[in-house]
Write a structure and sequence with these properties.
Keywords: Hydrolase, Membrane, Protease, Transmembrane, Transmembrane helix. One of its GO terms (molecular function) is peptidase activity. This is Membrane protease subunit. The chain crosses the membrane at residues 6-23. This protein starts with a helix and ends in a 5-residue tail after the last helix. It is an all-alpha fold and 128 residues long. It contains three helices and no strands. The protein has one domain (8-123).
Length: 128
């Protein structure tokens, strides 16, 4: 048997190995791809769960902070109201604060009946 015969036998053996081995390799490769996709899906799921837990904890902390802020504001308002003689004194205090911060040249202040005193005389012209 010469070099040609050995080449043909080697080629035939390579062809048989390739015909048997390639389908086995494809199955192996697909199994590895499936395992990689499963691992990625599990990892993505775990990341999503951790992000959801972080958002939940953040929302709980923000809600607790808002409750604490509201309780502090309520206590401060109660202290102011009590030190100013009750709700009417507190409302008068808020009215004075609002008047101090305005830049209006003419301000109408309500009377006991809740109606403003008008300045009808200011606009009339004296007929002298």
């Amino acid at each position: 048997m010469g070099c040609t015969g050995i080449g043909i036998v080697a080629g035939a053996i390579a062809l048989v190995v390739l015909m048997y081995g390639y389908p086995q390799y494809r199955v192996y490769s697909q199994r590895l791809s499936g395992e990689a996709a499963l691992a990625e899906a599990q990892s993505s799921r775990q990341v999503a769960i951790l992000e959801a837990r972080a958002k939940k904890e953040s929302a709980i902390a923000l809600a607790e902070a808002e409750v604490i802020r509201a309780e502090g504001a309520a206590k401060a308002n109660a202290i102011l109201q009590n030190s100013l003689g009750g709700p009417e004194g507190y409302l008068r205090y808020l009215q004075i604060q609002a008047l101090e911060s305005t830049r209006a040249s003419l301000i109408y202040i309500p009377t006991e009946a809740g109606l403003p005193v008008t300045e009808a005389r200011r606009l009339t012209v004296r007929a002298e």
